[in-house]
Amino acid sequence: MYYIDSKKVKYVKSEGYKCERNSFRFYLELGTFSSVDEVAIVIMKNPAKACLHNLYGAQNLTNLKIESDSTVNHVIDKLHNNYKKIIILNLYPYMASNTKIANNFLISYKNKRLCDYVKKRNFYTLQNVLKQNVTANIFCAWGKESSLNISMYAEDIYRLVSYCFRNHIKLGEYNRIMPSLWVPLRTFFPSHASKW
Fold first, then answer.
1. What is the per-residue pLDDT for 15?
2. What's the Cα-to-Cα distance from 146 to each of 98, 151, 152, rounded to whole Å?
């Protein structure tokens, strides 16, 4: 099991929703100890585990273990020195370590009404966070391959990229080579955050 490192992260805020056996996370904010007053927004495919257990609220990390996952911890490792705040958003809010499980939920007719609701709410959250953080560096990190329905995946990526283009929001990706961590987005399928 992974936990958020309290030596790198000062506080955690999350917003989510739980319905029957399904959990959704729309927003995860990590406050760091960095003196650099910058914000990083990382947009990934779907959340695995990282959130507060009640899925809503804020917590300081003094003597508190908050469940995380390897990808979120990797993002923290790469960005915590250069950003005061790291916000993690997702194309899909369905919480699952395996994207096949998320895909089954997203394409199931049985869950259509719930799925439509959470996708709309998720896109609304994406729009609001991007509007409120106009100077943030936005890292697209949803990955190339996916076991998600490829036409749905491409359509949702296109929807987000189009929204950002229309609203003059600059999307980027993580750069392992240059001293600057952020470079403009070059492809619709940037590297997954776990590959940084």
1. 84
2. 10, 11, 11
Give 56's strand partners: 15
d(CA 127, CA 27): 12
Strands (E), 4-84: 9-19, 22-32, 39-44, 56-60, 67-68
Beta bridge partners of 24: 17, 94
Dihedral, CA of residue 83, residue 87, residue 88 and residue 91, to nearest 10: -120
Of 46, 31, 36, residue with least CA distance to 76? 31
User: What stretches in the chain show pLDDT beneath 50?
Assistant: 55-56, 63
CB atoms inside a 10 Å sphere around CB 169: 18
Q: What φ, ψ does residue 135 adopt, rounded to 5°? A: -95, 0
Dig out the tokens for 127 from the structure: 């729009």
Please, are residues 142 and 43 in contact by the beta-carbon 8 Å criterion?
yes
| Nearest-5° Cα angle at 130, 191 to 157 | 40
Residue 179 is predicted with a pLDDT of 61
- Given a contact cutoff of 8 angstroms between Cβ atoms, the answer to whether 47 and 27 are in contact is no
pLDDT digits over 57-98, tens only? 555 555 456 678 889 989 999 999 999 999 999 999 888 887
Alpha helices in the chain (DSSP H): 70-79, 99-107, 112-132, 150-166
d(Cα 3, Cα 50) in Å, to the nearest integer?
A: 8
